[in-house]
Amino acid sequence: MNHLLEIACFNMQSAIMAQRAGADRIELCDDSASGGTTPSFETIKEARELISIPLFVMIRPRRGNFMYSDSEFEEMKNAVIFCRKNKVDGIVSGILTEENLVDKQRCTTLVELAKPMPATFHRAFDETDSSFAELEEVIDCGFDRILTSGQKSSALEGASFISLLIEKANERIVIMPGGGVRAENISELKKKTRAKEFHSSAINIQTRLPDESEIREMKKLIFL
């Protein structure tokens, strides 16, 4: 499996810049302050027209916790259907129970609705209370990958745990480190985790847009 760099983008300008800089995949979101929510349907359609690399869309109806009402779940299902009909390449989502466990029934419903699009379970995974058991639950739901910081504030801090997750996953699901991933630490993260896919926003603090030189440098480093 080749190495891959996914860039989280919070508007169309960011997505176009990330694609131009050599990103392998876009995770399209809204509301960067919350860590990402579902972008508008208009933005999704525009992105599908302008982005030629794989485009994954965040399915998260609001900021805050990952436990959703029935109406919010209906909103999530409708967003998945819209993405599938508009030929999006994948979805990113995750639902937990009040006990901070994977909501297996609802997650499986989303994964099934998304097919044939692959599905990523996002960093809600880092809020689960029994991650190795929940790894099995996510796999059973049919997700293709898990985005995780290893239950720490950054992926580098959680690198040893991410490495254990990759070992226990045993190639049944992709474990993708995310959280503070930058050019300055991606080589160390790669060495410590042996991960093949990496997730970053690569945001320039001044412009709040992706730093294209940062993306190019990360791309170079993960292939070394």
Highest-level CATH class: Alpha Beta
Q: Average the pLDDT over all residues and give the rounded result.
A: 96
**What is the straight-line distance between the termini?**
14 Å
Counting structural domains, the number is 1
Order of helices and strands: EHEHEHEHEHEHEHEH
CATH arch. level architecture: Alpha-Beta Barrel
* Count of helical regions: 8
CATH topology label: TIM Barrel
Report the sheet-strand fraction.
Answer: 5-15%
> How many distinct beta strands?
8
Could you state the CATH homologous superfamily?
A: Copper homeostasis (CutC) domain
Radius of gyration: 16 Å
Q: What shape does the CA trace take?
A: globular
State the helicity in percent bands: 25-40%
Biggest sheet character: 8 strands, parallel
Main sheet: which strands, in order across? 7-6-5-4-3-2-1-8
Determine the structural class based on helices, strands and strand pairing.
alpha/beta
Low-confidence stretches: none
Question: What would you note in describing this structure?
Answer:
With 224 residues, the chain is α/β, with parallel strands linked by helices. The protein has one domain (4-222): Alpha-Beta Barrel (TIM Barrel), CATH 3.20.20.380. The chain has eight helices and eight strands, in the order E-H-E-H-E-H-E-H-E-H-E-H-E-H-E-H. Strands 7-6-5-4-3-2-1-8 form an eight-stranded parallel sheet. Helix 4 runs parallel beside helix 5 (131-141). The radius of gyration is 16 Å and the shape is globular. It starts with a strand and ends with a helix. The mean pLDDT is 96.
